[in-house]
Amino acid sequence: MPYEDRIRELLGRMTVEEKFGQLQQLAWAWDTGPGAGAATEDAEAAARKGLLGSVLNVFGAASSNALQRIAVEESRLGIPLVFGLDVIHGYWTTFPIPLAQAAAFDPAVAETDGVVSAREARSNGVHWAFAPMVDVTREPRWGRVAESSGEDPYLAARYAAAKVRGFQGDDLASQGQVAACAKHFAAYGGAEGGRDYNTVDVSEQRLRNLYLPPFKAAVDAGAATFMAAFNTVSGIPAHGNTHLLTDVLKKEWGFDGVVVSDWAGVAEMVVHGYAADPAEAGRLALGSGIDMEMVSTSIADHGRELLRSGRLAPERLDDAVARVLRLKLRLGLFERPYVPEDAALSAPTEATRAAAREAAARCMVLLKNENAALPLDPGARTIAVVGPFADSVDLLGTWVIPDTRQRFPAVTVVEGLKSALPQARILHAQGVPAEGGSRAGIAEAVAAAGAADAVVVVAGEPPAISGEAATRADLGLPGDQEELIAAIAATGTPFTVVLVAGRPLTIGGWLDSAAAVLMAWHPGIEAGHAVADILTGAVGPGGKLPVTVPRSVGQIPVYYNRETTGRPYDASRPDEKYVSKYLDLPDGPQFPFGFGLSYTDFTTSDPRLSRSAIDAAALMAGASVEVTTTLTNTGGRPGDEVVQLYVHDRAASIVQPVRRLRGFERVRLTPGESTEVRFHLTAEDLGFWTGDPAGVFVVEPGAVDVYVGTSSLTRSRCTLDVT
């Protein structure tokens, strides 16, 4: 292995205290430089003594170089620090939130985000991005759904690999790359009730089939680091979970990188009731596979005594230190600990803004378009743009660097439409505040609507109520926004609702009154331009939902890849009582996973198989089956369609989901154009993990339905016999 001789040499020279110091990460006061007082003095002192391995939240070339000089030039061994930061969907150039990126059904969007973000961050002294978050979740109440790729493990896995590639490139030591961090390991997205940090009780087979695939994809893509999750997993905190951190991640998957705790996650094992005191928390964390402790100091404070008393193996300590040193060597920090201050990127460029704009438009999902209300009539002379987010810059989304939010706010929708439609008169009225307050502005919004040829209502939730520690019990529009929509509907002027949000929202009673609905998510720095691109037809919508949109919070969890019951609902017998249904809601979601409209029309042919039967043993040995469909643009405009492949194993030793996404391809076609889209099904697509903790994957004989279409509700199918 590369670097191993250097690692052994350093380990031989280090004291026990210096070893534990490498396992400690402390927080910085954002971009304040050394000498800023209490906010930075602990990190400075530890770095000077060689008792610190990493710092988070320090950035800016000058600030990071100043702190790095203390570690490299004043500590005994001169081991450089590694600087980490939550670079979630942009550094200076804010891309759409990760959930929105998943809606593009195009992993290249995430890879581009990673490339741009890595270049900007590394030039400012950041070596390590605490992303991608690859947690699969079926919980829209959970605020961190905004950081996820949604409810499907295959989609999340494809995006995990893409973001890792974007961040890390081919050479981590390059000045344009940062180390990726797959988080939160594991099952964080399964928190009960959607309450952040809450309990997760999950079977081994559900863990392996639903929650772990994106993490395995991150390992396979070369992710340099992992972060442990805040939650318990079947009663064991993830920060002390040997089965996950060591047995699965390090042994079964062969991961040789760093596992970092989440913020104070080691110390919180005491609060969980799993560790009696901080010393035991440190022992459990390091012993189970945590290699670096973020912010809390349980390992560093008690490590020497744990070693002396025999409660911690010296081999585990050396392994953890070796992993931290290996990361620093891979990043090239021993050779180039500093960044050139005159080369630090200080703002988005024209090119990065263009990339963010293209990404944002690519991520938007058209949910309704009655009577071709969109694109807007180019002859419209007056357009009213109303709602709390019509002229708001608060469209960047959760997890944005404070300096970025202040210096580089989002383009507003009003600005975007004025730029896109210079010949039109754009009227604006806020109507109501986003989260409630005065309703006096509704009259002004109604007056604007009455004077307009078309109305665009920009409604939704502010980024402050999505993201971490932002669980919502009600997923409707906050405040009085539904009253505003009702008042606009009463004017009789056709209107489009543009939803900006960090999660799927319950659309409620206003859906029928809107002519069109566009899910724009939190689109990032070029929000207004991208929304205008879609509304005017300069760009055709082609996004698809990466999450199911519920009719009501009472339906949650509702997701496409469910298991069938012994008494499933049958739409042909809606009055049947003893079936799995709600008495007060129609069956199914408001909008299903994979759904999204276009400004043109597409058809897909029934799927065709390269062979109708295949041996299970042959699949396990590497054989595959090709699936082909013909996609045709039957409409009058060029457009994008996402062809989706699903499988269903009809009878298995563990009940299988009614659909499992196993392939997708986003295709652009001109009117009348056709193309063949091909997928390959392998053992990975047709098999599943059993409940064996040792990790047993099987492909069983039987009939497998193969579906191809443009959403998870497609009925076009054929059957593959696995013998």
From TrEMBL:
Record-level GO BP terms: glucan catabolic process
GO MF, any single term: beta-glucosidase activity
Name of one Pfam family that matches: Glyco_hydro_3_C
Primary enzyme class: hydrolase
EC code: 3.2.1.21
Regions annotated as coiled coil: none
Span of domain Fibronectin type III-like: 641-712
Catalytic activity: Hydrolysis of terminal, non-reducing beta-D-glucosyl residues with release of beta-D-glucose
Superkingdom of origin: Bacteria
Keywords: Glycosidase, Hydrolase, Signal
SUPFAM superfamilies named among the record's database cross-references: (Trans)glycosidases, Beta-D-glucan exohydrolase, C-terminal domain
General function of this protein: Catalyzes the hydrolysis of a non-reducing terminal alpha-L-arabinopyranosidic linkage in ginsenoside Rb2 (alpha-L-arabinopyranosyl-(1->6)-alpha-D-glucopyranosyl) to release alpha-D-glucopyranosyl (Rd). It is not able to hydrolyze alpha-L-arabinofuranosyl-(1->6)-alpha-D-glucopyranosyl (Rc).
NCBIfam families: PRK15098.1 (NF011678)
Protein family membership: Belongs to the glycosyl hydrolase 3 family.
Record protein name field: Exo-alpha-(1->6)-L-arabinopyranosidase
